[in-house]
Design goal:
The protein is mainly α. Helix content is about 65%, strand content about 5%. The longest helix has about 35 residues, at about 410-445.
Length: about 575
C-alpha cells in the first residue's frame, strides 16, 4: 500500500506564481478595468466587442477565484489565501456591476445579436430578454450585490462555521457525521445521537440564519418579478417546469422501489428495520484495498476502454500533477474539481483513503475535469454550463469505472460495491426528493413569517415521512441545519440538479452500447452544454427530458442493481 506521504499534491505553479503580486493581481485589476470600460462606453461599443470584453473578464475572474480557493482549500488558515479570496469576491462585485449594465443595454439592442459571429449566443440573447424583465434598477442591483455579500453570505458562513466547529465529546460535527459509514452500529448510533445534541444546542442560531437567507431570497425574487424562488432556479438550471415535473414524477413513481431497497439493506445488515444512522452503513466486507497507483491504473484503463480520448486525458492529469490526494492538517475534507479557464487546465482535490470509494471519487472528479477539457476552448460565456448538466460527465465516468471494476471481482466481493452504488443512487433520488419537498415547504411558510427551529424540524420530518415512510423507523429532523445548500441565496433548490444529473448520466450510460455514434454525440453534448437550454442539449442525443419515460430509463439502471442486491438476502 502506498504510504500517506507518497500521495500526490497538485502543482498550481502553472496557473499563477503566487497571490502576492504579478499576474494574479494584474488579472483582478484587468477585471476592474473591463468593468470601467463597459460602463463608460456601453453605447458606443458594438455587441461583439462587449461580449468579447465580458468573455475576457469572466475567464480572468473565474481563473483567479478558482486559484485562490484551491490554495485556501489545502491551507485553510493561511492569511494570504484568505485575503486573496476576499479580493476575488470584491472583483466579482465589480464584474457583476458591469454585467447588470450590459443586460440593461443589450436588452435594447437584441437585433445586434443577429450576426454570424454571434450565432452561438442565441441562448444568451434569450436569457437577456428574461433577465431584463427580472432586473431592478442599476442602483438597486448594485445595492443588492453589495448587500448580499454582507448579509446573506454572512448567514451562510455562520452555518458553515457552526457546523464545522461545533463538537461533542471531543469530536466535531463533521467527524461525527463521517461515522455514519462505520461498520459498527453502536458507533453509528452514538455518533447520530451526539450529532443531534450538537444541532439541538445550536438550533436557534441556525434557524435565524436560515430565516435570514430564505427571507432575503423571497424579498429579492419578489422585487425582481419572479413568481417564486423555484421559477428563478429553473431559469438558472435551464429547464422547464414540465421537465422538472417529469423528473420528480418518475422518482415519486419509484418511491416504493427505494423503500424496498431500504428493507433489503436492513435484511443484509441483520436488523428488522433501518434507523436513520443505518442508511449509509456499509454492507458486506471488502478485503480489497487500493493504492493510489491502483486507482490511477483502474481509472486510466476504464476510461480508455470507453474512449481513447478520455483515457489520454486522465493519463495526462496524473502525469501533470493535477491531483491533490493526501489528507493533511489544514486541508478541507471532501473532493472537488476546479477549472482554470484562462489556462485551459483543471485540478482535482480529494482525500484518498485506499478504498473503492476513493477510487470512485477520483473517477467522478476526473469526469468533471474531462467536461471542462471538452469546453476549454469555448468562450467563457458559452462554457458555463448549468447545475443540471454539471454532474453528467462525473456520474458517467464514475459509472464506467464501477462497471469495469465489478467485472474484475468475484461475486463475494461484488456485494459491497453494488450496495454502495445503490446507496449513492438512493441519496441522489429519494433523499434529494425529501430535500426538495422541505425547501418548498420552507419557502411557503417563510413567506408568512419567521419560523422557529421547531417549525423547521416539523417541516423536515414531514418531507422525510413523504419519502422514506416506514422504511426508516426514525428520521433526522435537523437535516435542515447541516445541509449548507439550504443557506445559499445564489441558488435556491440546490437539490433537484443532483437527481437530474444522476438519472441523466445513467440514462446516457444505458444507451452507450446501442448507438454506434454515441462517443461523438457524447462529446458534442458536453461541448454544447453551456450554449443551449438543457432540452436542446439532451435532444442532440435523442432524449426528451420532458418525458417521464426518459427518467424511468435511468431509474431502470438502479432497479437492476437493487434486484441483484435482493439475490443476497
Amino acid at each position: 500500500m502506498m504510504e500517506k506521504r507518497d500521495l500526490p499534491h497538485w502543482d498550481l505553479s502553472q496557473i499563477y506564481p503566487s497571490v502576492e503580486k504579478g499576474e494574479f493581481k494584474a488579472d483582478l485589476a484587468r477585471v476592474r478595468d473591463i468593468r470601467d470600460i463597459i460602463i463608460s462606453n456601453m453605447e458606443v461599443l458594438g455587441m461583439s466587442e462587449l461580449i468579447g470584453l465580458l468573455n475576457e473578464a469572466e475567464a480572468l475572474l473565474s481563473t483567479a477565484s478558482a486559484y485562490a480557493e484551491a490554495l485556501l482549500s489545502t491551507d485553510t488558515s493561511n492569511s494570504s489565501y484568505i485575503k486573496a479570496v476576499g479580493e476575488c469576491d470584491d472583483a466579482s462585485v465589480a464584474f457583476d456591476e458591469a454585467w447588470q449594465a450590459f443586460v440593461r443595454s443589450a436588452s435594447m439592442r437584441l437585433d445586434e445579436f443577429d450576426v454570424p459571429e454571434l450565432k452561438d449566443y442565441k441562448k444568451l440573447k434569450e436569457d437577456i430578454m428574461i433577465l431584463f424583465r427580472h432586473q431592478m434598477s442599476d442602483s438597486e442591483e448594485k445595492l443588492a450585490s453589495e448587500f448580499l455579500r454582507l448579509s446573506s453570505s454572512s448567514w451562510e458562513r455562520l452555518q458553515q462555521a457552526v457546523t464545522s466547529c461545533a463538537a461533542n465529546g471531543g469530536k466535531t460535527l463533521i467527524e461525527l457525521r463521517a461515522l455514519a459509514t462505520s461498520p459498527d452500529r453502536n458507533i453509528r448510533r452514538d455518533a447520530y445521537e451526539r450529532e443531534k445534541k450538537i444541532l439541538k444546542e445550536h438550533e436557534i442560531s441556525l434557524s435565524y440564519a436560515l430565516n435570514g437567507v430564505k427571507g432575503t431570497t423571497l424579498l429579492l425574487e419578489r422585487k425582481r418579478g419572479w413568481s417564486s424562488p423555484l421559477e428563478r432556479s429553473l431559469f438558472e438550471s435551464r429547464i422547464s417546469k414540465k421537465a422538472l415535473d417529469a423528473l420528480l414524477g418518475a422518482i415519486e413513481e419509484k418511491i416504493p422501489l427505494f423503500r424496498h431497497y431500504l428493507q433489503i439493506k436492513a435484511e443484509l445488515l441483520g436488523i428488522k428495520r433501518l434507523s436513520w444512522y443505518d442508511i449509509l452503513a456499509p454492507v458486506g466486507e471488502s478485503k480489497v484495498h487500493y493504492s493510489f497507483k491502483d486507482a490511477e491504473d483502474i481509472v486510466v484503463s476504464s476510461y480508455s476502454a470507453f474512449s481513447a480520448k478520455m483515457g489520454a486525458f486522465v493519463k495526462n492529469a496524473f502525469s501533470s500533477s493535477w491531483i491533490d490526494a493526501e489528507p493533511r492538517k489544514g486541508k478541507t475534507g471532501g473532493a472537488y474539481d476546479t477549472t482554470f479557464k484562462k489556462k485551459g487546465e483543471s485540478r482535482v482535490l480529494l482525500n484518498f483513503d485506499y478504498t473503492y470509494d476513493g477510487v470512485s471519487t477520483l473517477a467522478h472528479e476526473l469526469g468533471h475535469a474531462y467536461h471542462d477539457h471538452v469546453v476549454k476552448d469555448v468562450p467563457a460565456l458559452l462554457s458555463d454550463y448549468p447545475m443540471t448538466l454539471a454532474e453528467t460527465a462525473s456520474i458517467f465516468g464514475e459509472t464506467i469505472v464501477f462497471t469495469e471494476v465489478l467485472k474484475s471481482l468475484e461475486r463475494k466481493e461484488q456485494l459491497p460495491l453494488i450496495e454502495q452504488f445503490v446507496s449513492s443512487a438512493n441519496q441522489c433520488c429519494l433523499d434529494i426528493l425529501s430535500r426538495f419537498y422541505f425547501e418548498s415547504f420552507a419557502f411557503e411558510e417563510r413567506g408568512r413569517g419567521e419560523l422557529s427551529s421547531s417549525d423547521y424540524c416539523a417541516l423536515m420530518l414531514k418531507a422525510q415521512e413523504m419519502t422514506y415512510g416506514d422504511a426508516v423507523e426514525d428520521k433526522h429532523e435537523y437535516m435542515w441545519a447541516v445541509k449548507s445548500h439550504y443557506y445559499s441565496e445564489a441558488f435556491s433548490f440546490y437539490n433537484y440538479p443532483y437527481a437530474f444529473g444522476e438519472l441523466f448520466a445513467l440514462s446516457l450510460f444505458s444507451r452507450k452500447d446501442k448507438d454506434p455514434l454515441f462517443l461523438e454525440k457524447y462529446d458534442s453534448l458536453l461541448l454544447r452544454s453551456g450554449m443551449d437550454d438543457v432540452k436542446s442539449v439532451a435532444g442532440m442525443a435523442g432524449f426528451d427530458i420532458e418525458d417521464k419515460s426518459f427518467w424511468l430509463s435511468g431509474l431502470a439502471v438502479i432497479e437492476k442493481y437493487i434486484k441483484e442486491l435482493e439475490s443476497w438476502t
